[in-house]
Amino acid sequence: MDPMTMVFRIQDPAVLKGVKAGDRVRFQADRVNGQLSVVRIQKGK
Questions:
Q1: Pairs from 33-40 (Cβ < 8 Å, separation ≥ 24)
Q2: Entry pTM
Q3: Order of all β-strands in the sheet with 35-43
Q4: I need a surface site. Which of 2, 16, 39, 40 has the fewest CB within 10 A?
Q5: What stretches of the chain adopt beta strand conformation (E)?
Q6: Strand partners of residue 41
Q7: β 25-32/35-43 pair status
Q8: What torsion, rounded to 10 degrees, do the Cα atoms 20, 15, 36, 27 define?
Q9: What whole-number distance in Å separates Cα of residue 42 and Cα of residue 45?
Q10: Does position 32 have pLDDT exceeding 80, yes or no?
């Protein structure tokens, strides 16, 4: 996909360690308390 900006809640801010704005990422989102939240994220290639 082309680059895009999306807004998600984060369940645990520690999962963002090592990821900064502009990085390509792969992530897993899940519904937590009725809201989509990032539960896992890693830098992409």
A1: 35/9, 36/8, 36/9, 37/8, 37/9, 37/10, 37/11, 38/8, 38/9, 38/10, 38/11, 39/11, 39/12, 39/15, 40/15
A2: 0.67
A3: 9-10, 35-43, 25-32
A4: 2
A5: 9-10, 25-32, 35-43
A6: 27
A7: antiparallel
A8: 70
A9: 10
A10: yes
CB 13 within 8 A of CB 38: no
Is 3:30 a contact under the CB 8 Å cutoff? no
DSSP label of 14: G
Please name the residue that has the structure tokens 């990422």.
25
- List of residues 6+ apart from 11 with CB closer than 8 A: 32, 37, 38, 39
Number of Cβ within 10 Å of residue 35's Cβ equals 11
pLDDT of residue 30: 93
Q: State pLDDT tens for residues 2-30.
A: 877 888 899 889 989 989 988 989 999 99
